[in-house]
Amino acid sequence: MNSEDFLLLQLKSPSTREKAFRELITLYKERLYWHIRKMVISHDDADDVLQNTFIKVFKNIDKFKGDSKLFSWMYRIATNEAITHLNKNAKHVQMSNEEIQSNTVNNLTSDVYFEGNDIQLKLQKAIATLPQKQQLVFNMKYFEDLKYKDMADILETSEGALKASYHIAVKKIEAYLTGN
C-alpha cells in the first residue's frame, strides 16, 4: 500500500479523518496554492480559493472513488474552484475573464506578494492574453512540470488535446514576447 492509499484510508475513517486531513493540507497546500495563484494571480484570491478547495475536499472525500490519484482529484477541484472564482468576478464587474486577468496582471507590480522581475512580469502579461484553457495548460506544464497524463486526469481531456493546447500557447507567448 503506497502512502497516498494509506492517507486515503485514514481520511475515510471517522476516527483518523481530522489528523489525516491536517496531513493532507501539509502535503498539498503549497502546490495547490501556486497552481491556483497562477490562475487567479492575486494572493488574497488564491488564499480564498485554496480554502474553498480544501473545504470541498473535506466534504467530498467519501465520494472519492479512486478512479484517479488523490492528487489529480484535488487539482481538479482546485482548478474548478479557481475557474468559478474567475467567472464570478468577471460577472460581478461585467468584464470578460481575459479583461480581468489583464487588469490583475497589470496590478502585479503593486502586489507586495509578487517578487518577480520585469521578465517575469512580461511573461505573466503574455500568459494573460491566452484563452483560459491555454493559460491553464501552459501553467500546469511550464511552471508545475506536470506530465500530460496527470494533466489529462485533472482536466478530464485527452493528452493529444493538451499537447496541442500547450504548443499553441507557447507559440502565442513567443509571439507576444518577441513582438511578432
Automatic annotation (TrEMBL):
<dbReference type="Pfam" id="PF04542">
    <property type="entry name" value="Sigma70_r2"/>
</dbReference>
<keyword id="KW-0805">Transcription regulation</keyword>
<dbReference type="InterPro" id="IPR007627">
    <property type="entry name" value="RNA_pol_sigma70_r2"/>
</dbReference>
<dbReference type="Pfam" id="PF08281">
    <property type="entry name" value="Sigma70_r4_2"/>
</dbReference>
<dbReference type="GO" id="GO:0003677">
    <property type="term" value="F:DNA binding"/>
</dbReference>
<dbReference type="InterPro" id="IPR036388">
    <property type="entry name" value="WH-like_DNA-bd_sf"/>
</dbReference>
<keyword id="KW-0804">Transcription</keyword>
<dbReference type="GO" id="GO:0016987">
    <property type="term" value="F:sigma factor activity"/>
</dbReference>
<dbReference type="InterPro" id="IPR014284">
    <property type="entry name" value="RNA_pol_sigma-70_dom"/>
</dbReference>
<dbReference type="InterPro" id="IPR013324">
    <property type="entry name" value="RNA_pol_sigma_r3/r4-like"/>
</dbReference>
<protein>
    <submittedName>
        <fullName>RNA polymerase sigma factor</fullName>
    </submittedName>
</protein>
<keyword id="KW-0731">Sigma factor</keyword>
<feature type="domain" description="RNA polymerase sigma factor 70 region 4 type 2">
    <location>
        <begin position="121"/>
        <end position="173"/>
    </location>
</feature>
<dbReference type="GO" id="GO:0006352">
    <property type="term" value="P:DNA-templated transcription initiation"/>
</dbReference>
<feature type="domain" description="RNA polymerase sigma-70 region 2">
    <location>
        <begin position="24"/>
        <end position="90"/>
    </location>
</feature>
<dbReference type="InterPro" id="IPR039425">
    <property type="entry name" value="RNA_pol_sigma-70-like"/>
</dbReference>
<dbReference type="InterPro" id="IPR013249">
    <property type="entry name" value="RNA_pol_sigma70_r4_t2"/>
</dbReference>
<dbReference type="InterPro" id="IPR013325">
    <property type="entry name" value="RNA_pol_sigma_r2"/>
</dbReference>
<comment type="similarity">
    <text>Belongs to the sigma-70 factor family. ECF subfamily.</text>
</comment>
